[in-house]
Amino acid sequence: MTKVSANVNMPSNIRYLKYWFLGLLLLGCTSVAGYDLLYGVPQRKCESAGSWWRWQDRVCYKPIYLPTLTHRPAGEGNALNWHDHKAAQDLPGKATASSAAASK
User: Fold this and answer.
1) CA–CA distances in Å: residue 58 to residues 40, 52, 55
2) Other CB atoms closer than 10 Å to residue 90's CB: what's the count?
3) Which of 10, 44, 51, 78 would you label with 34, given CA atoms 20 to 30 Å apart?
4) Residue 73, Cβ neighbours under 10 Å: how many?
């Protein structure tokens, strides 16, 4: 019976695998850092300013104060008081008792 030696002159692939995995690690780290620079930093900056971040377009939207659009005084409620007679008469297309009696 012949003995088989441990060194059979097979080429070692460990050196190539080491560089392959090192390259994958560097690619992964670069990808994470790039994602953070493109999305994470602008998002944190936008949200710290009190705005809204939309990640699909990478746009920071500033909220608009509602009284600026509606021209109502600040702090006024947005609901109509239907028990107020004047509020019911001011609605267009709303027939009131006095307008129905006047049209007959």
Assistant:
1) 10, 10, 5
2) 10
3) 51
4) 7
